């Protein structure tokens, strides 16, 4: 087969999103039209998702020696596009009432999604850094899109400063790794890791520790998590959704590839550091979530614990072949649940005709009795919260079961104990929200959401995610078969 045409086909998602960015830029400069740009963005994200069918036909191909497209990359690219499309759908009703320019929002989402796709396809530190910066820089503006609100502006400044410091750590860590290995390619470094015994070279270990520090910040792992609750609370709800899904998934996919190609967990020092970070994230995230009254802050702390669970799959990636399977299943369950809950938060804000950042000061008031005036939203939110809690017949239970299984099989008893304790804590604060949904509503809460046509795409999206969460929780075999087909070739 001819290589160049196949490389072009493999680049379809990047080309389509890049082309969409140009269309949006030209449209903004000619005439601003919120509906048109939202429609074009959503349709082209849909086309980029459909293009993965053709990409799959030519998968396992290099693009300019910097990107590598395989089944693993295609899987995470699909998740990133789905999350970006959902974010655009959720954001439309909020932006419709936004007082300033609306169209730049979609431009920044597309650029950030482009960075996420690059991260999912990288096998080189050059594209790793490029992808992270392309992903992160638009987030500075997106988090502070409500710039006339003090809390949003504060969140943007905080994330900008800390993200810049984290990028500095990443760049310096890459330089140290390059100085010892002489290459920026994962596979080449992985081969030299064993042949040259890089594991015993201090600069190499220090470089990787700095890289882990930077990526730990992006994943909001303890102790690099300090920005997370404030940014989740201050950012528009659709951007909090984007942060918890696209940002986390793309970083996690690239760090997984990094750990597959470069067996850094063979180093006892690195392995112990990761075990401590995972344990602290799991315990601390759940404990802090108990004390939150703002639902977005609660979800921020909850995300810390969920990424801690996922980190266990990275720690065991060379000892257990279930690791990639468990991380993939857990990631999908986490994705559906977060998209569903954030979508409901946006609809609740529509009910009260307020900005979504104004209704979360005490979720016990605004979400109380949701069942009695909107049973559909209540059912969806219940399913998503039960999935995050890891209750049976939901996809979240399957993911957590896999994580516990690989922890036991690799004898990580500390982590097993941490998972069990934190799961009990998690069930408590998730059930606290669920019980609140079924209480007698306050008189001010007895409102019914309008049947506005612009809300139908959100309702359809929520129905799809909640249905998949239950169906795959009851019968996960199709998802397991899909995950088994995406293992990177180097894993074997």
From TrEMBL:
Domain NADH:quinone oxidoreductase/Mrp antiporter transmembrane: 123-425
EC number: 7.1.1.-
Compartments where found: Cell membrane; Endomembrane system; Membrane
GO cellular component: endomembrane system; plasma membrane
Main EC class the enzyme belongs to: translocase
InterPro entries: NADH-Q_OxRdtase_suN/2 (IPR010096), ND/Mrp_TM (IPR001750)
Protein's UniProt keywords contain Translocase: yes
A Gene Ontology molecular function term of the record: NADH dehydrogenase (quinone) (non-electrogenic) activity
Principal location class: membrane
Annotated keywords: Cell membrane, Membrane, NAD, Quinone, Translocase, Transmembrane, Transmembrane helix, Transport, Ubiquinone
Function of the molecule: NDH-1 shuttles electrons from NADH, via FMN and iron-sulfur (Fe-S) centers, to quinones in the respiratory chain. The immediate electron acceptor for the enzyme in this species is believed to be ubiquinone. Couples the redox reaction to proton translocation (for every two electrons transferred, four hydrogen ions are translocated across the cytoplasmic membrane), and thus conserves the redox energy in a proton gradient. NDH-1 shuttles electrons from NADH, via FMN and iron-sulfur (Fe-S) centers, to quinones in the respiratory chain. Couples the redox reaction to proton translocation (for every two electrons transferred, four hydrogen ions are translocated across the cytoplasmic membrane), and thus conserves the redox energy in a proton gradient.
Family according to the record: Belongs to the complex I subunit 2 family.
Subunit structure: Composed of 13 different subunits. Subunits NuoA, H, J, K, L, M, N constitute the membrane sector of the complex.
PANTHER family, sorted: NADH DEHYDROGENASE
Name under which the protein is recorded: NADH-quinone oxidoreductase subunit N
Species annotation: Candidatus Pantoea edessiphila
Top-level taxonomy: Bacteria, Pseudomonadati, Pseudomonadota, Gammaproteobacteria, Enterobacterales
Gene it is expressed from: nuoN
């Amino acid at each position: 087969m001819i290589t160049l045409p196949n490389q072009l086909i493999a680049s379809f998602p990047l080309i389509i999103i890049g082309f969409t960015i140009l269309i949006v830029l030209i449209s903004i400069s000619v005439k601003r039209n919120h509906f048109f740009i939202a429609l074009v963005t959503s349709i082209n994200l849909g086309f980029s998702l459909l293009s993965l069918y053709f990409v799959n036909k030519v998968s396992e191909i290099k693009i300019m020696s910097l990107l590598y497209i395989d089944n693993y990359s295609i899987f995470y690219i699909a998740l990133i596009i789905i999350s970006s499309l959902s974010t655009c759908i959720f954001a439309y009703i909020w932006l419709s009432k936004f007082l300033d320019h609306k169209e730049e929002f979609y431009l920044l989402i597309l650029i950030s999604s482009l960075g996420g796709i690059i991260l999912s396809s990288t096998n080189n530190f050059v594209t790793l850094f490029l992808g992270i910066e392309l992903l992160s820089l638009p987030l500075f503006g997106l988090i502070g899109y409500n710039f006339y609100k003090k809390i949003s502006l504060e969140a943007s400044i905080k994330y900008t400063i800390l993200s810049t410091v984290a990028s500095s750590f990443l760049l310096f860590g890459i330089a140290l790794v390059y100085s010892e290995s002489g290459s920026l390619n994962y596979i080449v470094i992985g081969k030299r890791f064993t042949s040259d015994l890089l594991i015993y070279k201090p600069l190499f270990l220090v470089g990787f520790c700095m890289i882990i520090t930077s990526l730990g910040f992006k994943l909001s792992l303890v102790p690099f998590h300090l920005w997370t609750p404030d940014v989740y609370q201050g950012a528009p709800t659709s951007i909090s959704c984007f942060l918890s899904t696209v940002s986390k998934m793309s970083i996690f996919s690239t760090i997984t590839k990094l750990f597959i190609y470069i067996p850094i967990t063979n180093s006892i020092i690195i392995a112990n550091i990761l075990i401590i970070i995972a344990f602290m994230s799991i315990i601390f995230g759940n404990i802090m979530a108990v004390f939150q009254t703002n639902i977005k802050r609660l979800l921020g702390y909850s995300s810390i614990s969920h990424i801690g669970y996922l980190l266990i799959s990275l720690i065991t990636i060379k000892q257990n072949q279930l690791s990639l399977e468990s991380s993939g299943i857990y990631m999908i369950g986490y994705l559906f649940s977060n998209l569903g809950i954030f979508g409901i938060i946006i609809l609740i804000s529509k009910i009260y005709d307020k900005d979504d950042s104004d209704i979360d000061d005490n979720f016990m008031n605004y979400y109380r009795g949701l069942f009695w005036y909107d049973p559909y939203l209540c059912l969806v939110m219940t399913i998503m919260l039960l999935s995050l809690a890891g209750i049976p017949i939901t996809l979240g239970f399957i993911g957590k079961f896999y994580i516990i299984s690989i922890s036991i099989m690799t004898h990580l008893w500390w982590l097993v104990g941490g998972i069990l304790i934190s799961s009990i804590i998690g069930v408590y604060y998730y059930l606290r929200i669920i019980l609140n949904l079924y209480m007698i509503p306050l008189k001010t809460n007895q409102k019914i959401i309008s049947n506005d046509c612009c809300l139908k795409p959100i309702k359809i999206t929520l129905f799809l995610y909640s249905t998949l969460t239950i169906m795959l929780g009851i019968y996960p075999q199709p998802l397991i078969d899909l995950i088994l087909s995406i293992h990177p070739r180097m894993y074997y």
